[in-house]
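Shape is hard to put into words, and the shape of a protein is harder than most. The fold becomes a row of whole numbers, each drawn from a learned catalogue of backbone shapes. The outcome of that step, for a single protein, is printed below.
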Amino acid sequence: MIDFWLAAGLLLLVALSFLLIPVLRERRAQREEDRTALNVALYQERVAELQSQQAEGVLDAAQMDSGRAEAARELLADTEGVAAPRVSKLGKPLPLLAAILVPVLGLGLYLHFGAADKVELTREFAQAPQSMEEMTQRLERAVAAQPDSAEGLYFLGRTYMAQERPADAAKMFERAANLAGRQPELLGQWAQAQYFADGKKWSAKIQALTDEALKADPKEVTSLGLLGIAAFEGERYQEAIDYWNRLLAQLPPEDSSRAALQGGITRAAERLQASGGKVAQAPVPAKAALLKVSVDLASELRSKVQPGDSVFIFARATSGPPAPLAAKRLTVADLPVTVELGDADAMMPQLKLSNFPEVQLVARISRAGQPTAGEWVGRSGPLASSTTALQKLTIDSPDK
């Protein structure tokens, strides 16, 4: 911050120099004007003395003219090189007044509209914090400087949760949701913070937040985990198992929290069985579809296409939306080729191969790179999405 103020002071001195230099020049011009006036007065006094001597008969007319000419030459020599004084329409006080007001006004405007606090925060965040308390203080100052930053509010809320300050965290998540929109992740974090702030008491507000989050994203992990905790605390062990199984399916294999989550599922199952209940088996997910297709180009078309032409290979439902369920893009130079189309290639999460019992395979060549229209196409007949045998597809017909 010291570097900033030093630079600002240097710029201020440069600005003041443009105001003070004219004043200094004016003072110099005044001194030159005073010297010129003195020389003129001496000239006039010398001429008066010559006239007096002529009147007394000491000098004749020729001597008088010679003396007057000599005095004039001396006056000219003394005033030579002196520039004519410049008359300022602004007057002398105005530059001095501006020299005082400019720095004062500039400082006031910067303190009011400037971003000194944000500059200081940027410098602080460039260095790693030494403690959680220091990080919290930085985030609090950042939120105070930028109250409309949903990201800053979110991170401050997460920090409050790490410090076991759920009531403060709930306020931050609520503000972030109001700014960034009611995104599922924000709603889940807000619900979790509110649950712990209320002493682990479930409420209609928390239920509404988790319902809204899961409606927008059925895989929202914080809401799934929180609903599992609430169900376990309420001795609704089967619900807890179901929620935690859904959460477990979203976590990557290397996630460290999987062991703790699996332990919670085991405890819930033990308590359910101890109370005389029976653990319901989780539904087996549908087997992911995977179609293997070999695509080639008819020999009579090889001279009519170019190596760089796009080739779109996709599967679409025979009865359902016209959008491709899975697609891949290659070029004519890649043909012949064998590719796999599966749920991992879905264009949209809700449109997967495994969700439709019957599909059609299509391969299209498009010089313009458009998947919906091209020059040549090859189509298969209807086949089950669970087909495992290799399918052969030949591009041989004009695309109509």
